[in-house]
Amino acid sequence: MSTTTGMSAREVIMARIKEALRVPAPLPHGLAEDSRAQFGPRPGAAALTTSGGARATISTTPASSGLPTLTVLPEEVARPWLPDGGETPAEQLQLLVENLGKLRAIVHQVLDLTAASDCLFTLARERDWHRVAWHPHPLVEPLLAGVPCATYRVDAADFDKDALESCDAGITSCEALVAQTGSMLVSSATSGGRALSILPHVHVVVATVDQIVATLADALHAAKARHEGHLPSMLSFITGPSRTGDIERILVLGAHGPKELILILVG
Amino acid sequence: MVNHTPCGQHRSTHSPLAQSRGLAARHSTQPNTPVLPSWTEEIHAVIGPGVGRPQKLAIGYDWNMIASDAASPPESQPRPSGADSPRFAKKKFLHDATEHVRDTGHREFVRKALGGYYTNRDLQKARFRDWEHARDAASLAKWSAVNRLDELLPRFVDNFEANGGQVHWARDAEEARTIVLGLVRAAQAKAVIKSKCMTSEEIHLNAALEDEGYGVVESDLGEFIQQLRGEPPYHFVFPCMHVRRDEISDLFGKYLGTPPTDSPEELTMIARRHMRRLYVDADIGITGANFLVAETGQISITENEGNARLTAALPRMHIAISGIEKVVEHLDDLAVLLPMLATAGAGQPLTCYNTLYAGPRRPGEADGPEEMHLVLLDNSRTAILADPEQRDSLHCIRCGACLNVCPIFKNVGGFTYGTTYQGPIGSVITPHLRGLSDWNHLSGASSLCGACTDACPVRIDIAHHLLHNRRNAARTAPNALEKIGHRLFAMVASRPWLFGLGGAVFRSMLPLLKVLRPPLLRDWLASRDLQAAPRQSFRRQWEHHQPDEQTRPLEGRA
User: Fold this and answer.
1) CB contact under 8 A, A232 and B2
2) How many beta-carbon pairs below 8 A join chains A and B?
3) Is B324 in the same domain as B402?
4) What is the pLDDT of residue B327?
5) Cα(A238)–Cα(A183) distance, integer angstroms
6) H-type helices in B187-323, by residue range?
7) Chain A hits for B366, Cβ within 8 Å
8) B268–A61: do the CB atoms touch at under 8 Å?
9) Is B126 a member of any domain?
10) Phi and psi angles of residue B100, each rounded to the nearest 5 degrees, phi first
């Protein structure tokens, strides 16, 4: 490797990659015949036979091998194969609530923000919360007015991790709710940063029914569209309360993140 | 059923040990705060601030602060097998496998621990409308990315840097260690917290950091237990699946000074309480990465406990370490890969936290690290890439499904492999990463049942790759004795009269072999009984069982 002297690590690794890819690899083993048709033929083949439009395209810029490579959009093709996300809003709502139940998250469905406020009040009273953390958001702020304990407002100006650590619960909004998996997509931009939804012992999410989407892909699309060109520094799918199975593969809730995950669903 | 502790209970669980040592003062005005000491304060009290090069384990996390009579934890060691003495890797494998197979209690324990996994995995697979086709999609997403790595990796790096992250390229383990050590030193870090990261195991990062005097705490419960035990992970997804709860209770008693308990919930809560201050006080958080998204420059981290979320949220610097092969092209690809990773790996619809990070904290965001670094590691991955036949082993998403179904893994256990990546996928890639001649024996440890290939969510042809490794080893370093043997057999088998004669000789010699145990057969005979030879050859018996006149002996027809 005498040619590598004086090259940066990046140059060396990229040179190794380019050299390695000069020989094309066969399509994955065991790929079902009808999938081949859906995704297109082997790289280098002249034409594509896709069922249902531009699901697979030949890359316009050839790889270093000089062979055109196949670019596939697996999600689009895989959609009907993945777990169901529901067709209608009613189906999606039902699926979401069902999945959250299986994940041992708690769901409170309320009619409006006033009812949501009452719900949070009851939660704080029942669970004897001393201090709850929240972030400024049109869905969160109105709920905090009557809460029967101290509050800590998470703020970019003076963030105090010790103060947040001492809170019993974190109240946040979310980007989207995913029917397919029972996930809640939170982000550092719209859920009060990174720690608010993970450090307090209880995480309360306030969301409206129109935030429900069918699939993970839909949630990612929604987030991408909302933050066009400026993705938040963190996007996180939360799927149930924190858990571990590290001790004898026995499920325990509340490993390091919240022990309880509560959704207040408005509408 | 899980009866988890009601929320808020932590307030009443003040550490009795901390109190007994007068450490409760710090938070006495805030009854809500758990009373555990701050690292830095205590360290300054012990060694004084600004002392030059710190004592081993002094900086970061002083284990003795937690319990006055607690023992110091073992230091992290580079894996004992292989790294130092690859020549003995095969010998050690055979020795450990023999020992382990005899330990029926251990095997039963591991088998039982995996029982729940099978049930949940099947349940979650059934939620897919077409699991087999979804596997096609997942494998193509990885295939498409790995085969265009020359285009996608630079695209990912450009986008990651545009998001404010900093990228470091590492040709090998040593370069990666140097980069991380440099970052930790430059940040004048006092405490490092880590979430589960197999790439860091691969480069023996913990031992390197400890050598420099930095305390590192593994925050994943399983990894934390393994760190206290002074052992590497047993299974790259379930690191301490071989440890009984009473052993964990004893371990926590020894190092954390907690009272014994046989409840997994209680044990988990001990680790939870113990770790909380550490997240808040750590300067640097180190994580791995499951996927690198080229389109958006994000890294994706999959976990269940929330420890990676905390590790990437609270410390002022986030360092992620990833292999170069983790790139996927589209953000959408994760909508396929994440549920498949969770289903195949843990029998979950999706793991609890699947998080995408795009650089450090942005203006206007409440918290997050000031700097985010990503170490991109080659460490012989390009050698696998250069082999088109086995290139698909770079599609691996490290779900561990092939380990969970492997009869070899279940019988010889995770440590016997002596590798960072255990099980079938480890047996495929380790010879590429660390040398075929020293690690080819792992490819021999296979029943060729193909369960690994069937289990793989990204359709890696693992079972055949084990054969490919054997073939490659035979080509590069042919065994002269085996060659002569095969040639001899071919000669005999292609001459029916000689085959018949050979059979007769062998049958008569069988009882003698049993007694003489020639060196060539000694290993084989060590774990097997030679059955008594039948009096007649198979062909003779076949003849007698054929009522039909036409079925004459083979010699006759030839």
Assistant:
1) no
2) 396
3) yes
4) 97
5) 5
6) 198-202, 205-211, 221-229, 245-256, 264-281, 307-311
7) 135, 154-156, 159, 188, 192-196
8) no
9) yes
10) -65, -40
Q: How far apart are CA B284 and CA B368, in angstroms?
A: 11
| Contact criterion met (CB < 8 Å) for A35 and B269 | no
Q: Is residue B13 part of a domain?
A: no
B265 touches chain A (CB under 8 A): yes
Residue A80 per-residue DSSP state:
G
Residues in chain B: 558
Q: Do B305 and A196 touch (CB under 8 A)?
A: no
Coil, helix or strand at residue B41: helix
Evaluate if residue A70 carries a pLDDT over 60.
no
* pLDDT tens sequence across A81-117: 999 999 999 999 999 999 999 999 999 999 999 999 9
Choose the mutation target among A33, A236, A256, A260 for the interface with B, i.e. most B CBs under 10 Å: A256
Chain A neighbors of B310, CB-CB under 8 A: 195, 198-199, 256-257
- Whether B191 contacts chain A with CB within 8 A: no
Mean of pLDDT over chain A: 87
Chain A residue with minimum CA distance to B357: A234
Tell me the residue type at B473. A
Tell which of B420, B446, B477 closes a domain.
B477
Mutate which: B41, B125, B148, vs A, most A CBs within 10 A: B148
Q: Do A246 and B221 touch (CB under 8 A)?
A: yes
The domain tally of chain B equals 2
Q: In what order do the strands lie in the sheet with A169-172?
A: A106-110, A260-266, A202-208, A169-172, A131-134, A150-153
Q: What is the pTM of this model?
A: 0.85
- For chain A, say whether B529 makes contact (Cβ under 8 Å): no
Tokens (6 digits) for A169: 């619960």
Contacts of A245 in chain B (CB under 8 A): 116, 238, 304, 346
Given this model, what pLDDT does residue A229 score?
A: 76
- Do B176 and B113 reside in the same domain of the chain? yes
Per-residue pLDDT, B243: 96
Residues of chain B with pLDDT under 50: 1-68, 79-84, 556-558
- Domain membership of residue B233 (yes or no) is no
Q: For A243, which residue in chain B has the nearest alpha carbon?
A: B305
Phi-psi map region of B543: left, alpha, beta (phi>0 left; psi -120 to 50 alpha):
alpha
Distances (CA, A) of B284 to A239, B164, B194, B315, B494: 26, 17, 8, 5, 68
Burial class (CB in 10 A: 0-12, 13-18, 19+), B63: middle
Cβ–Cβ gap B309/A194 under 8 Å: yes
Host domain of residue B78 = 73-218+283-477
Segments making up each domain of chain A, as ranges? 33-81, 89-266
Residues of chain A contacting residue B238, judged by C-beta atoms under 8 Å apart: 245-246, 249
Within-domain flag for B339: yes
For the stretch A192-227, pLDDT in tens is 999 999 999 999 999 999 999 999 999 999 999 999
Question: Which amino acid makes up residue B245?
Answer: R
CATH number of the domain at A89-266, please?
A: 3.40.50.10420
Considering Cα of B216, then B222, then B226, then B231, what sign does the dihedral take? negative
Cross-chain Cβ contact B245/A248 below 8 Å:
yes
